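in:
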């Protein structure tokens, strides 16, 4: 199942240029000095497929579109993505069928690129794994195509710091999950069982916590038993019915009095509405006045600026330059066309009439704005006077209504309030009694549901163990991979090599008995070990027909290695390792390697894409300089 991904070519388009780079044969070399865009080319490959990319600002500023032709599971697809876009257009090259666009983010009505690529490779598109490997719960995280891509792309920034993202806790969990799937140590069905078991265990824990809280509450609250609850409930219902009858009688009596005040209440309501309208009108006019004053101030500033510009133009119009103020070269002998500036050779424009017209326009606008402002200020004063009259009428009507209410309505309202509070207390009491009864009856039900959830989790655990046993034989692959990794490191003829192994729990490389993070701080050993780990994975997958893409993209395999004779010998062994893979597996493998330079024995045998400052990866782009930015 190896060799399911093969990069055919990439086309980079700028507004003015277009460049296509082919990846012919099992090994393609990308060489050139620092800053010519080698790393950006590899990042653009990933970007074109729908991933994020770390790019120099100059690359981002110049590249308009990326187009990648790649073979997935024997079919050739064309991926086209505009820089900064969050979707990828996809075409089946053989049939001409447009199967995109795919989204690179989560869009509700558009397929996601990473899920579609997994589907093409025959892998689960919506695989989710528990966020915690120990005692997993229902909390899960999705595994995407680009989690798999980390195994086939060893980038310059990670080659001496991170093994397939192990330094990031979230990525490390997914790194292990992808490894287990590729090596048959786990399966989508087994992962799904773990997720479902976690959900049932979460539910069981939640139910038992709820039951314990209910029981503790009932004990501390000295809740009455069920017989007492029924008796207290009947007494409360009788009192509630009596209080409701009294409240109905008082409300009927109060309603007759309220109807007698209807005219007065209506007048207060109308006055309040009128006050609201005139207040809103005043606020609107105030806003218009503020805008007019702001506009008037701006127009006067423009008028003053225009005056200053006219004064400056007249002050400078007679100046003649004898030398260029930028480079200080003599320009007196320069022949300029008539009506053109002797310094910049641009036609001299007549701006006096334009300035006069602009001044006239500004004066007209100022006059018009002042007129509108005066009208608004007059209207605002009128609204304010109207508002004062309405406020006086409203105060008078409100006082009259208050007097009437105090004399006739207030006593009855107090009685209504007292009965309403009594009813509310009785209803609350009844609800409390019902809640107590429900808590007692639900307590046992909650425990029963917790027991059922535990039984469901146990049943899934049994199935999980059966599946794990069926996959247990595949763990021998870890021993076999360790042998391949040890041989790979040994063949690099490293002076500090003693032994190399694979951690059976974390699947991380172990060299001389030490973990990857324990290797030298300088980075050279980490670079070599990381590279050897990826080469061993690739070799083992090809030898054993694992679901591991027969593709490896490496950026800067000699990073931090050094320039001594011993360092050069190590670098030569690295490229010999590349060559051995190609010789052994031929077209079943594809290696894409970017480096400043490569040994002659490799350059003479394999296609090389060489770039320089005069011929960078992105045609027409200047030297990118410092800094990278991530593009999603």
């Amino acid at each position: 199942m190896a060799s399911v991904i093969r990069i055919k070519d990439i086309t980079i388009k700028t507004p003015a240029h277009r460049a296509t780079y082919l990846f012919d044969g099992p090994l393609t070399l990308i060489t050139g000095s620092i800053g010519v865009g080698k790393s950006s080319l590899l990042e653009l490959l990933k970007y074109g497929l729908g991933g994020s990319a770390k790019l120099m600002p100059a690359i981002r500023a110049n590249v308009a579109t990326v187009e990648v032709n790649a073979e997935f599971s024997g079919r050739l697809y064309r991926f086209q993505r505009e820089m900064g876009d969050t979707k990828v257009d996809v075409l089946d090259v053989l049939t001409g069928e447009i199967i995109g666009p795919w989204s690179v983010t989560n869009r509700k009505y558009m397929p996601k690129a990473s899920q579609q690529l997994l589907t093409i490779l025959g892998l689960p598109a919506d695989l989710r794994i528990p966020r915690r490997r120990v005692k997993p719960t229902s909390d899960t995280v999705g595994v995407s195509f680009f989690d798999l891509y980390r195994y086939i792309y060893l980038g310059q920034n990670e080659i001496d710091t991170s093994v397939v993202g192990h330094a990031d806790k979230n990525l490390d969990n997914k790194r292990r999950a992808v490894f287990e799937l590729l090596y048959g140590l786990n399966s989508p069905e087994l992962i799904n069982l773990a997720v479902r078991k976690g959900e049932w265990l979460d539910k069981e824990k939640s139910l038992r916590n709820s039951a314990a809280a209910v029981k503790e509450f009932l004990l501390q609250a000295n809740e009455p038993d069920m017989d007492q609850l029924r008796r207290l409930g009947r007494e409360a219902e009788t009192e509630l019915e009596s209080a409701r009858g009294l409240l109905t009688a008082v409300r009927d009596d109060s309603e007759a009095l309220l109807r007698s005040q209807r005219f007065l209440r209506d007048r207060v309501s109308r006055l309040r509405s009128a006050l609201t309208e005139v207040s809103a009108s005043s606020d609107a006019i105030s806003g218009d006045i503020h805008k007019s004053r702001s506009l008037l101030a701006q127009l006067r500033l423009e008028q003053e600026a225009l005056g200053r510009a006219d004064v400056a133009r007249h002050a400078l119009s007679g100046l003649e330059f004898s030398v260029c103020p930028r480079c200080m070269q003599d320009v007196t002998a320069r022949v300029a066309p008539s009506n053109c500036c002797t310094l910049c050779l641009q036609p001299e424009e007549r701006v006096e009439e334009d300035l006069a017209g602009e001044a006239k326009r500004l004066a007209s606008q100022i006059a018009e704005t002042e007129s509108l402002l005066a009208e608004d200020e007059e209207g605002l004063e009128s609204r304010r006077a109207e508002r004062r009259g309405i406020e006086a009428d409203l105060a008078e009507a409100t006082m009259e209504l208050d007097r009437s209410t105090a004399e006739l309505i207030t006593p009855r309202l107090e009685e209504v309030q007292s009965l309403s509070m009594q009813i509310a207390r009785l209803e609350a009491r009844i609800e409390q009694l019902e809640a107590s009864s429900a808590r007692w009856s639900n307590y046992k039900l909650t425990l029963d549901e917790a027991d059922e959830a535990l039984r469901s989790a146990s049943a899934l655990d049994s199935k999980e163990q059966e599946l794990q046993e069926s996959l247990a034989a595949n763990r021998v692959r870890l021993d076999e991979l360790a042998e391949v990794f040890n041989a790979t490191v040994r063949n690099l003829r490293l002076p500090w090599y003693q032994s190399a192994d694979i951690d059976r729990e974390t699947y991380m490389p172990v060299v001389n008995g030490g973990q990857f993070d324990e290797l030298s701080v300088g980075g050279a050993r980490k670079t070599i070990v990381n590279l050897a780990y990826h080469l061993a994975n690739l070799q083992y997958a090809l030898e054993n027909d694992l679901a591991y893409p027969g593709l490896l993209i490496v950026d800067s395999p000699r990073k931090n290695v050094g320039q001594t004779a011993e360092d050069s010998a190590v670098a030569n062994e690295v490229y010999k390792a590349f060559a051995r893979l190609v010789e052994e597996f031929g077209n079943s493998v594809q290696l894409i390697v970017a480096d400043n330079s490569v040994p002659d024995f490799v350059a003479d045998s394999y296609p090389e894409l060489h770039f320089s400052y005069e011929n960078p990866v992105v045609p027409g782009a200047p030297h990118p300089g410092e800094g990278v930015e991530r593009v999603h």
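note: Residues 504 and 537 are 14 Å apart (CA to CA).
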